[in-house]
Amino acid sequence: MQKLTRIITLSVSIAVISGCSYVGVYKRDIPQGNLVTEEMVDQLQPGMTQEQVTYVMGRPLLEAPFDAREWDYVFRLDKAYAGVEQRRVTLTFDNQGRLANIEQEGDFSQDIPLEADSTGGPATDTTDPTEAIPNQPRQNTTPSTTN
């Protein structure tokens, strides 16, 4: 009977421990949208053309579907072990396509640290794509001359 009690206690303990995330699950920061910094917004001046704004800020994430004069730049960072940080810049253009109004939401005073993922990713133009494939035999690419 004592042996059965130990087996049941051990089984219940293992079941409870396996269901708990005591160690935790790996989480990573998830950035979404246009990265908008204070330096970018400081470069904006009323009267700039849409092309000049695109050069400074990039293409907007959202263009109002019924009014092409309003551009929204939205950036959202879902921090893995903290909260969510959101920034939004809404730019309004006049009828001549000149920047008329700049509205900001969020805290632009701090830089957002974004870590580059150095593990994996697509091959760059300067590398041979076959070098990115592990354990693949390399083929001879020189043409053979057979007569």
UniProtKB/TrEMBL annotation:
UniProt entry keywords in alphabetical sequence: Cell outer membrane, Lipoprotein, Membrane, Palmitate, Signal, Transmembrane, Transmembrane helix
GO biological process, one term: protein insertion into membrane
Compositionally skewed regions (Low complexity) per UniProt: 119-132
UniProt keyword Cell inner membrane, yes or no: no
Keyword Signal attributed: yes
Sequence intervals crossing the membrane: 7-26
Membrane topology per record: Lipid-anchor
Sequence segments annotated as region (Disordered): 102-147
Listed Polar residues bias regions: 136-147
A single GO cellular-component term on record: Bam protein complex
GO molecular function: protein-macromolecule adaptor activity
Domain Outer membrane protein assembly factor BamE: 33-102
Compartment annotation: Cell outer membrane
Reported function: Part of the outer membrane protein assembly complex, which is involved in assembly and insertion of beta-barrel proteins into the outer membrane.
UniProt-listed PANTHER family: OUTER MEMBRANE PROTEIN ASSEMBLY FACTOR BAME
Oligomeric and partner information: Part of the Bam complex.
Family: Belongs to the BamE family.
Name of the protein: Outer membrane protein assembly factor BamE
Gene label: bamE
